[in-house]
Specification:
Layout (H helix, E strand, L loop, with lengths): L2 E4 L5 E5 L5 E3 H13 L10 E4 L3 E3 L2 E2 L3 E5 L1 E5 L11 E13 L5 E2 L8 E7 L12 H9 L10 E4 L20 H6 L8 E4 L8 E3 L3 E3 L5 E11 L9 E3 L5 E7 L10 E3 L5 E3 L2 E3 L6 E3 L2 E2 L2 E3 L2 E3 L4 E5 L3 E2 L2 E3 L2 E3 L3 E5 L8 E3 L2 E3 L6 E3 L7 E3 L3 E3 L5 E3 L5 E2 L7 H16 L13 H13 L2
Parallel strand pairs: 2-8, 3-9, 7-9, 9-11, 12-13, 13-16, 14-16, 15-17, 16-18, 17-19, 18-20, 18-21, 19-22, 20-24, 21-25, 22-26, 23-27, 24-28, 25-29, 26-30, 28-31, 29-32, 30-33, 31-34, 32-35, 33-36, 34-37
Antiparallel strand pairs: 1-2, 4-7, 5-6, 9-10
Helix pairs in contact: 4-5
Length: 439
């Protein structure tokens, strides 16, 4: 045995005998336990308690910690004839601490002549968290086509979050949008992901959103997260920040008011994949802005205009939207409105005009395969330099012609006079309908 114990002093001394100059925590523990198991030593209180060694997987274990119980470790004294006279002694392979007879911490080393003891304390193995692969994140972000920047990411969960959380993970999501936005930095391209965690599959919040952080991106899960406020007097979503993005929400307003679903006054704003329903004002209202994009949104049943393009608005684009059941589909009117474009929208069943362009509005472009039906009229143009590209446009008359053509081929008494002609009736009808749809 490489140790010798003096159990009759306090604190007790556990001596590592010469010529040993190094001992591990595990070896020390094993030898102390061997001493304690001797019949002559069973009457003495235990000398050491150890903790750790639980498996972490992959061959790694929690490090061992030894707690000396009213005891200290010493290395046997030397005679000073070594060169240099002090002998360096090491305790390694874990952590070593000591407590006295009342449980108070104390130095675990007892000094002896011509020895110098070093404890090589260690930490437990831990699961290594790899650094973020920022190159991959930036690559994924670049595929979105707009707003190609990436800052910090925060999580907002109206159902299961708490504003005392830090928002850094879905499990640490904050509860209110205001708390989430307070975590963001202007101009950094930060992202707030909105979570829908209600057991019904749909999460509803009455909080109104005011987006004021420049460059902030707010991304929702679509219809599953619904913004339905409980008070009137302001838009459900107000975007005053420049270069903000807002996408993936279902939006209403409180009944009894005259509130817009979304109001945007910042420059370079993107509004995408939103469903604005039954706004008591305008569905989406933009003004005093440039380079705003409204993409793939549904705006329906607004008391006011589906989309209102107000004064001092330029270079904005309304693309691939469904605009239906509003008092007017898209209304563009006011001073200093120039160079706005509408592309490939479906605009139907609005009480008055599908698109109305007011006096003094300059160079509005209406292009790329719009579909109009049941508006009154489809387009009212009082602007200057309006460009209308009607190629590919499908109107109600086109639909009527397709239907009439098919039924004429099928039921006309004279369309296929003669033997053997009936067999190709439907084939010819389908061909005619297909060609008509491609005009």
């Amino acid at each position: 045995m490489a140790i010798r114990v003096n159990p009759y002093v306090s604190p007790r001394i556990i001596e590592v005998q010469a010529p040993l100059t190094e001992i591990s925590i595990q070896d020390l523990t094993d030898q102390i336990k061997d001493w304690e198991d001797e019949p002559a030593d069973l009457a003495f209180p235990i000398l050491i308690r150890t903790y750790g060694k639980q498996p972490l997987g992959g061959g790694s274990f929690v490090g061992i910690t030894a707690v000396l119980q009213n005891a200290k470790i010493s290395f046997e004294a030397r005679d000073g004839l070594d060169t240099p006279p002090e002998v360096l002694c090491t305790i390694s392979g874990g952590n070593l601490v000591a407590v006295d007879d009342v449980g108070a911490s104390m130095n675990p080393i007892h000094p002896t002549a011509y020895t110098q003891v070093v404890i090589a304390q260690s930490t437990s193995p831990s699961i290594i968290t790899p650094p973020e692969d920022l190159n991959m994140l930036y690559l994924i972000e670049s595929l979105r086509g707009t707003g190609k920047s990436l800052g910090s990411i925060f999580y907002w969960d109206p159902e299961g979050g708490s504003d005392t959380n830090d928002g850094s993970q879905p499990s640490e999501a904050v509860q209110t949008f205001a708390a989430a936005q307070a975590l963001t930095t202007a101009g950094a391209g930060d992202i707030i992901f909105a979570l829908s965690t209600h057991s019904s599959g749909i999460t509803t919040t009455s909080e109104k959103l005011s987006i004021t952080t420049a460059g902030l991106k707010v991304r929702g899960p679509g219809y599953r997260l619904q913004l339905i406020p409980s008070a009137t007097g302001s838009p459900t979503v107000n975007i005053s920040a420049n270069s903000a993005e807002f996408e993936g929400f279902y939006i209403e307003t409180k009944s009894g008011g005259t509130d817009n679903g979304i109001t945007a006054t910042g420059n370079n704003v993107v509004i995408k994949d939103c469903w604005v329903n039954s706004a008591t004002g305008n569905g989406i209202d933009i003004s005093s802005t440039s380079r705003t994009e409204i993409n793939t949104c549904v705006i329906e049943e607004s008391v006011g205009y589906g989309i209102n393009v107000g004064a001092t608005t330029s270079l904005s684009t309304i693309r691939k939207c469904i605009i239906s059941g509003n008092s007017e589909g898209v209304y563009i009117a006011g001073a200093s409105i120039t160079d706005n474009i509408l592309e490939n929208n479906i605009i139907y069943n609005n009480t008055t005009s599908g698109i109305e362009i007011g006096n003094g509005v300059v160079r509005t472009g209406i292009r790329l395969h719009h579909t109009f039906a049941a508006n009154n009229p489809n387009i009212t143009d009082d602007g200057t330099g309006t460009y209308q590209d009607t190629s590919g446009t499908i109107e109600q008359g086109d639909i009527d012609n397709i239907v009439s053509g098919v039924w004429d081929e099928v039921i006309s008494a004279t369309a296929h006079a003669g033997a053997g002609s009936a067999g190709k009736t439907l084939r010819d009808a389908k061909t005619k309908a297909t060609l008509a749809s491609l005009k």
